[in-house]
Amino acid sequence: MEEIIAQFVKLRSIIAEIVRDAGQYMKEHAPDNREVHRKPGLANFVTDEDVAIQKKLMEEFDRLFPGCTFFGEEDVAGNDRDGRDGLCFFIDPIDGTTNYIFGYNHSCVSVGAGYGGEMIAGFVYNPYADEMFTAVRGCGAEMNGRELKIHDVPIEEGIVAFGCARYNEGDTDALFQIAKELYLNSLSIREGGSAALDICRVAKGANAAYLELKLNPYDYAAGSVIVEEAGGRIEQVDGRCITLDGPCSILAGTSKAVEEVREICRKYL
Ligand code: 2AM
Ligand code: CA
Q1: Helix or strand holding residue 263 (H, E)
Q2: What is the CA radius of gyration of the chain?
Q3: Residue 75: domain span
C-alpha cells in the first residue's frame, strides 16, 4: 500500500494533467442533439464525448500503470467492473452529463484510484471554473495547488446541496421532504447536477453538506478521497461506509453537518 501511494505522490501532477486535458476536450466538444444517445431509464444520456474521454483516460492509465483495472460509467471494451483486487481506476468521463447536453457549463471529469478495496487518490477537474481538485490518501487535498482544509460549520451557517437524478424516482417524496427541512435549517439549498463537483464543493468549503440517495461508485470515488483529505466526511446516509462495488447513498459534509443532515433524513427514510 505504501508503495502505491508513493507512486501516486510522484505522479500526482502528471495524472492531473491527463485529467485536465480530458476536461478541456469535454469543454471544447460540447455536443449537439444529434450526438446525444439515451441509455435505459429516465434522463439517462450518453454523448460521444463521454465514450471518447473514457477510452482516452483508460489508454493513458493503462500506459502509466500496466495491468490496472477500470470501473467506468460507459460501456467500452476493457471496462471490467469486476476485477478490482489491485489498482483500479474509477472513471466518470463526464459527471453532470445532463448539464453538459443543455449547456449548463457545470460538469467535470472525475478519476478515482482504488487499491485493495480502499480509495487512495482522487482527481476532479471542472474546466468551466478551471478548478482542479487532487488528493492522495494521507497527503492532503488541493484545489489548483492550494491546500484544502474544512471548517466544521453546522448547516445553519452553510449551503446544503442535494442531488435528485431522475433515474431514482422511488425516493422522490422522502427526498423532497428532506430538502424542505434542509432549506428551513440551512442558509440555502442547491441542486447542481454533478455529484463529483458537489462533493468537491464540500472539500473547498462551498457546501456544508451534500446528499444524494443513490449514486454509482464512479460518481463519488474520486470525491471521497478529496473530501476526506480536506478534513470532511463521506458516508452512506445511514452511517455505513460507502461502497465501491455497487451503488449507495452519499452524505458528505463537515462533521457537524453530516450529523445534522443524518438526523433529518432519519425522519423520512
Ligand atoms: P452523470 O451526469 O454522470 O450521469 C446528479 O444527481 C448526479 O447523479 C450526477 O452526478 C449524475 O451523474 C448522477 N446520475 C444521473 N443519472 C445517473 C444514472 N443513471 N446512473 C448513475 N448516476 C447517475
Ligand atoms: Ca456520473
Answers
A1: helix 255-268
A2: 17
A3: 2-147
Q: What is the pLDDT of residues 225-248, one digit of tens each?
A: 999 999 999 999 999 999 999 999
CB atoms within 10 A of CB 206: 15
Q: Do residues 251 and 173 both lie within one domain?
A: yes
For residues 75 and 214, give the distance between their C-alpha atoms in angstroms, rounded to a whole number.
20
Say if residue 74 is in the same domain as residue 172.
no
CA separation, residue 171 to residues 221, 249, 269 (Å): 23, 11, 8
Whose Cα sits closest to atom 15 in ligand 1? Answer: 165
Last residue of a domain, one of 87, 112, 147: 147
Q: What is the DSSP letter of 224?
A: H
Q: Is the CB of 93 under 6 A from ligand 1?
A: no
Pair type for strands 209-215 and 188-190: unpaired
Nine-digit cell string for 52: 471518447
Per-residue pLDDT at 83 exceeds 70: no
Helix extents (H) in 131-254: 172-185, 195-203, 217-229
**Ligand 1 pocket check for 207: Cβ under 6 Å:** no
* Contact (Cβ atoms closer than 8 angstroms) between residue 26 and residue 126: no
Residue 206, Cα to own-chain centre: how many angstroms?
15
